[in-house]
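User: structure tokens for this one?
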Amino acid sequence: MKIDQGIFYSSIANYYNQIFPLNEKQVDFVQAGLNKLDGKKILDIGCSTGQLANRLATLGAQVTAIDLNEEMIAIAQKENHFPTLDFKTANMLEVDSFAEESTLDAALCFGNTLVHLDSIEEVSQFLKGMAKVLKPGAKLMIQILNYDYILEHEVDELPLIDGPKISFIRKYDLPETAGEKIIFNTELVIKSSRESLFHASRLLPLRKHDLHTLLEYNGFERMKYYADFSKKPYGGNHLPLVVSAERSAS
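Assistant:
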């Protein structure tokens, strides 16, 4: 099976909203973190088809939403229209090329986007760029999977996503030695045609301790870790890992 993240996301773009409908708890999490959204400048990184970005814009935020996949951005631009919403095909490692220094009130990186980066060094590069464009005290909100739990408990399959029109099967080939990536194998079944789309991609199994260290190193503080967007306390044995951090004022 060919391993190609671009092909993977292009293949599911037309079905993305069925696989991952808007999570209202994400909206609530962002609102609670910023107190109010009116006039807040927010960058949504890995925005996919733009559902979250659009909702935040309708609630008063000024949102720039980026994704590396052109098909995702094309759908986002077609389906979401709001005066304070702008979609761009862009690389999360080049954020300082389209966002000015110390201008953002918040940045969001949900949907396990961060672990699509190639290395710990690239994660650090991304966080350095975010610290540059966020205002002092501004929020960086991240959601990945809890790779401490996945690796230590050898979790090799994620819960089935089963809807009226599609089923989405997700399995892992876990690394055999330290430093290797996880192979993320997916099967998207379109029920009307019984067609199956298979793809695989490599994911960086980023552990909580490493993420915390990189956040501190790149100028973030007041990190808070949760088990989900409802702010359930981080406890180890759960799949999501949600983080809120602030850019240091110094």
